[in-house]
Amino acid sequence: MSSTYWPKEIKRADAVSPKTGATRRMDRLRSTLQQVDPVIANRAWLEVADALQRITERYTR
User: Fold this and answer.
1) What's the sign of the alpha-carbon dihedral 7, 26, 15, 12?
2) DSSP assignment letter at 1
3) Residue 58: what pLDDT?
4) Tell me, what's the pLDDT at 3?
5) Count: domains in the chain
6) Residue 6 near residue 28, CB atoms below 8 Å
7) FRET label pair with 56: which of 22, 25, 26, 41, CA 20 to 30 Å apart?
8) pLDDT digit string (tens) for the chain, length 61 residues
9) CB 10 within 8 A of CB 21
10) Within 1-61, where are the H helices?
């Protein structure tokens, strides 16, 4: 893949909807974390989950 693949994909997804853009960003994170140590990947996913939970709580009040 070229270095412009993900930015183009995310830009296209953002044009569809914010949710689609967020999903593509998560896909990019997933592909990146497959290449690192599993302990680091798990820690990153826990941090992402915490951040998403805070965002969800903020916007559902």
Assistant:
1) positive
2) -
3) 86
4) 83
5) 1
6) yes
7) 41
8) 568 999 999 999 999 998 899 899 989 999 989 999 999 999 999 999 999 899 888 888 7
9) yes
10) 5-16, 18-33, 38-60
Please tell me the distance from the alpha carbon of residue 8 to that of residue 51, in angstroms, as a whole number. 25
Q: Which two tokens stand for residue 21?
A: 């853009």
Q: What is the pLDDT of residue 2?
A: 67
For residue 1, what pLDDT is reported? 57
Site of tokens 């009040």? 61
pLDDT at 61: 74
Structure tokens at 18: 């914010």
| Structure-block tokens of residue 53 | 């939970």
Q: How far apart are CA 27 and CA 18, in angstroms?
A: 14
For residue 26, give the nearest of 55, 59, 60, 57 by alpha carbon: 55
* Structure-token match 């680091």, residue found: 40
